[in-house]
Amino acid sequence: MAGQLTRDTTKLPAYQVERRQRILDAAKTLLRSTDFESIQIRDVASTANVALGTVYRYFSSKEHLYATVLYDWSVPFYSADQSWASGLETTGRVAQRLRKALTAFEKKPHFYQTILILRTSSDPNVRELMQQLVLVLEEPFRSDFSTLPPDEAADITAMVWAVLMDLVGRLLSGNKTMPEAAGVLDRFVAMIGLRLEQAKTRGH
Questions:
Q1: What is the tens place of the pLDDT at every residue in 122-157?
Q2: DSSP 34
Q3: Where do the domains of the chain lie, and which CATH numbers do they carry?
């Protein structure tokens, strides 16, 4: 049964949905204050007040559990009310999304570090979740760059995430302050804006 229960909980009895969520909440709570590699599954089980074997009924491994934690934490962040973006130009929306992400990772450094670890996981459950997470997180940016050819929009979206993740690393290591990191993001977004204007003027 391990690894067979996914994020689709519609077929689970209510008590299992509640138990699974309790495990996720416990895992998330631990990650706020403890680095991923120091957390043991038994710590999660104890915090959630469930048996150790119960955790493995829902998640095939610690990596699978924390990939789900990251997915459930990140997706609402990007799928929440987007009304704030309606009055902004494309570059304004991109800049705001990146600043929000930078701030979120600064507040939860262990989440950033866990993403780096799980991106190279060989666990098929983890790889699937991380791939789906990337698609969800990239969708707003792909939409912002929809005036560009699809391949170029995908490439720029990949660059956006590469720059963001590098800046988060620099911020957390003390190599950059928040104002400095935000300044780099603003200059990077301004460069994207030049390309968007060029595409608009030339029709791609």
A1: 999 999 999 988 888 888 888 899 999 999 999 999
A2: S
A3: 14-62 (1.10.10.60), 66-202 (1.10.357.10)
